Amino acid sequence: MRKLANVSIKSGPKSLVTPKDILSKYKEYAEEINEELLRMDIFVDIPQYNELLEEIRKNLLRVSKDFTVIYSEEEIENADYFVIYSDKLLGSQYENNPEKFYYTHCSNCENYIDQYKDLIIKNKKINKNMAYNAWEGEMIVSEDIKNLIVTNKLTGIDFRPVYHGVKNQTIIGYQIVVKNILSGNVDDKTILKKTNVRLNCDFESYILTPEYPMYIPRNLLENVLDFNCTKEYFGSGFFPRQYIIVKKHVRDLFINAKIKNAVFEPIFHV
Ligand SMILES: [Zn+2]
């Protein structure tokens, strides 16, 4: 795996050169470059990355950076387990009223955890063979995907209907419900940051920064079901959620069926 930096450069009041000057100088080392938006993607493990940062600093430009992990083909092909999620967001009918669907963990916090009602989303329909991420953090799939999962007898997964419309409700998709919780925590090698702790609340949630992979002890994954979730909750804000962990053949099945917007990130072992 390699760490990729998305570097944005801005002029400051005393800058000696323009962001464009720097971008064109380092163009050939960029994985992607956007000269309009003044940003480039560059791997942090090449010497030019540090040179770039040094040059930005010396020329009194401003910089901001985001990181992502890029997995190699080999790492993806060799992985036995994956985190699954969707990068396509679905709006909710109640974006400011999560209490319509969830209880908070306790009266001292605003962590909406326990779902008591089926979700209602803004869209009138959702596309075939598409996976989504609900505003509330749940994974939602089209009916075709539900059928694919049921026909192939995948284990560890249940569904809740997802509706459109508050009064005349129609089912337009299915929320994935995963109940099999891993029996232990992610490995210490996983870089976790605890989210803001609230007074008089025992709920714990973490942030998994996108620049680091997840490590899970191999013994925790022996004899698990096709769909499982982490013991830990992740995310700050109203909707901390557990990550969904699937076996390799779930990924194979999704890829063969050309499911769109489902993302699989390999899990590493120590
Ligand atoms: Zn609480």
Structure at a glance:
By secondary structure, this protein is α+β, with helices and mostly antiparallel strands. It has helices at residues 19-26, 47-58, 73-78, 143-151, 218-221, 248-256, and strands spanning 2-10, 32-34, 39-43, 62-70, 81-86, 89-90, 102-104, 112-115, 120-121, 131-134, 139-141, 157-164, 170-178, 192-194, 205-208, 227-234, 241-247, 262-266.
If you had to describe this structure to a student in words, what would you say it looks like?
With 270 residues, this protein is of the alpha+beta class. The chain folds into two domains: 2-70, Alpha-Beta Plaits (2-Layer Sandwich); 79-266, no CATH class. The mean pLDDT is 94. It is built from six helices and 18 strands. The longest helix has 12 residues, at 47-58. The chain has helices at residues 19-26, 47-58, 73-78, 143-151, 218-221, 248-256; strands at residues 2-10, 32-34, 39-43, 62-70, 81-86, 89-90, 102-104, 112-115, 120-121, 131-134, 139-141, 157-164, 170-178, 192-194, 205-208, 227-234, 241-247, 262-266. The relative contact order is 0.16. Bound molecules: zinc ion. Residues 105-106, 108-109, 111, 201, 203 line the site of zinc ion.
Integer count of domains:
2
Question: What shape does the CA trace take?
Answer: globular
What structural class do you assign from the helix and strand content?
Answer: alpha+beta
**Mean pLDDT, all residues:** 94
| Sheet with most strands | 6 strands, mixed
As a percent range, the share of helical residues equals: 10-25%
First and last CA, distance = 15 Å
Number of strands: 18
Number of helices: 6
- Gyration radius, to the nearest Å? 21 Å
SSE arrangement, N to C: EHEEHEHEEEEEEEHEEEEHEEHE
Percentage of residues in strands? 25-35%
The hetero molecules present are: zinc ion
Oligomer: single chain
